[in-house]
Each structure stands twice: as structure tokens, then as C-alpha cells.
UniProtKB/TrEMBL annotation:
Belongs to the Nudix hydrolase family. CPSF5 subfamily. It holds the Pfam family NUDIX_2. It comes from Saitozyma podzolica. One of its GO terms (cellular component) is cytoplasm. Coiled coil: none annotated. Homodimer (via N- and C-terminus); binds RNA as homodimer. Component of the cleavage factor Im (CFIm) complex. This is Cleavage and polyadenylation specificity factor subunit 5. It is found in: Nucleus; Cytoplasm.
Length: 200
């Protein structure tokens, strides 16, 4: 796909990966995640999350960059926003934290070139968590006046070349888009909806 200024995505072989320190998940189980959601909601209200749909091509076919955590579940790069962060600034920060190149002498600091060349584009969908449970919906149910979380999926594009620093406890996969189609059983409903979102 191209726009007025050139391609929106580039071949997978243009990108490189290096390893960085482990980035442990904040929640080690579903009950822990729900408990933390309840605590956050009590403190700051609705939790806002942002995830990136990053497209590259392999053999001319679109692939999505996906993180696999501890050889188990898959997730899109991104995460929770601080209450005062905007969607775009927060998403750039999360991408930089997860896949940016760490500074060799300052633990926790990420070199700017690891994340300033992400381009956050359109919001492709918003998912809602009406209750303190695991279910997210691609709409806000009419009876729900106090949702517990909103999760926005943004299209994020890359420069022609880039190096990713992938935490040791994660793997960065490029999964062909057809793998997600009608495959909610394996990847979940958000991934299964990506082919529809990108077809627009």
C-alpha cells in the first residue's frame, strides 16, 4: 500500500532485531490482572490502553508484528496509558519502552532513535471492557455507563529500515495476515478482526 509520500510499509528483511533485558509482565495471572484493574479504576477511573498494528511485507504479502510473551500468549505492542498521556504520545512511549534500543550506560533509558521514527496513524478500532472480567467488545454496550477500560488499536508505520531491541522473555513475530482471519480460537477476537480493519 502506498500514499502520496510513498509506501506505508516495507519488506521484513529491512528490519533487524537485537536482544535486551527481560521485561516481565506486570500480571502473572488473570485474577491478578483483574485485581489490578479494579485498583486502578478506584484510583483514576477508566483505564485507557493503546496497541499498535504494525504491518510489514514478506514475499509481497502483508504480515503483522506481534509479541509472544514467555512462549505463551500473543499480544500487540503497546500497553496502558498514564492518566494524563495522550493516545499518540503514550503509544510512542510504550513502543519505545518495549522495542526501543536501551542506552548502554543508563539502565531504563531508551535511545531516542529507537522510537522517534514510529509514525502513529489512524485509530482503526476501539474495544471496551464493560466489567471487571476478561471480556472486551468492539462496541460499548448500550446499558454500560461506566466501562472499566477502553483499548484503541492504531495503525503504526515504520521507516524503510529499523532495529528492534526485543526483551529476552519475548519474541517478535511477523505473522501473515491470513493467519488471523476467522481464527479467534487461536489468537483472540482482536487479532481475528485485523484483516477486516486493514481492508478498509
Amino acid at each position: 500500500m502506498v500514499n502520496a509520500t510513498g509506501p506505508l510499509w516495507y519488506p521484513l528483511q529491512n528490519y533487524f532485531m537485537i536482544e535486551r533485558e527481560n521485561q516481565p509482565e506486570e500480571d502473572h495471572s488473570v485474577p491478578t490482572r483483574i485485581k489490578r484493574l479494579e485498583e486502578q479504576y478506584a484510583e483514576t477511573g477508566i483505564r485507557r490502553s493503546v496497541d499498535a498494528i504494525i504491518v510489514t511485507t514478506h514475499r509481497g504479502f502483508p504480515h503483522i508484528l506481534v509479541l509472544q510473551v514467555a512462549n505463551a500468549f500473543y499480544k500487540l505492542p503497546g500497553g496502558y496509558l498514564d492518566p494524563t498521556e495522550s493516545d499518540r504520545v503514550g503509544l510512542l512511549t510504550r513502543l519505545n519502552e518495549q522495542l526501543g534500543i536501551p542506552h548502554p550506560t543508563k539502565p531504563g533509558y531508551v535511545l531516542p532513535q529507537g522510537g522517534e521514527d514510529w509514525v502513529v496513524r489512524d485509530c482503526l478500532s476501539t474495544w471496551w471492557r464493560p466489567n471487571f472480567d476478561t471480556f472486551l467488545y468492539p462496541y460499548l454496550p448500550a446499558h454500560c455507563t461506566t466501562p472499566k477500560e477502553s483499548k484503541k488499536l492504531y495503525l503504526v508505520t515504520l521507516p524503510p529500515q529499523k532495529t528492534f531491541a526485543v526483551p529476552l522473555n519475548m519474541k517478535l513475530h511477523a505473522i501473515p495476515i491470513f493467519e488471523f482471519y476467522d481464527n479467534a480460537a487461536r489468537y483472540g477476537p482482536q487479532f481475528a478482526g485485523i484483516p477486516y480493519l486493514l481492508s478498509k
